[in-house]
Amino acid sequence: MEMVDNAKRRYEIADECLNILWDIVRYEVEGEEYDKLLNEQREWIKEKEEQAQANADEWEGGSGASVSYYNTLAEMTMERCGELLEYLK
Questions:
Q1: Which of 54, 43, 44 is nearest to 78 (CA)?
Q2: How far apart are CA 18 and CA 27, in angstroms?
Q3: Per residue in 35-80, pLDDT tens?
C-alpha cells in the first residue's frame, strides 16, 4: 500500500508542476499558437491516460497495477513539464 501511496503522491506533485507551467503558458502564448498548444495538450492528456491504463492492465489486476498506473502518469507528466519548459524558452 505504501508503494501505491508514494507513486500517487509523485504523480500529484508532477501534476501540480504541470498546472503551474500551463498557467504560465496561458499568459505567454497568444492566438493561434495558444490554440494549437491547447489542442496538443488535450491530445496529450488522452494519450497519457490511455498509456497509464495500458501499463496497469499488464498487471492483470495484480498489486502492481496501481503502482504502474501512477508511475506512468508521473513519468509522462514530468516529461510534458520538460516539453512545456522548452516551449517557453
A1: 44
A2: 15
A3: 999 999 999 999 999 999 999 999 987 779 999 999 999 999 999 9
CA distance linking residue 69 with residue 74, whole number of Å: 9
Answer for the pair 18, 84: CB distance below 8 angstroms, yes or no: yes
For residue 88, CA distances in Å to 22, 24, 30, 47, 82 come to 10, 9, 12, 22, 10
Using a CB cutoff of 8 Å and minimum separation of 24, what contacts does 46-50 make?
A: 47/76, 48/72, 48/73, 48/76, 48/77, 48/80, 49/73
> 44 burial class (0-12, 13-18, 19+ CB within 10 angstroms)?
middle
Q: pTM higher than 0.70 for the full model?
A: yes
CA distance 65 to 69: 6
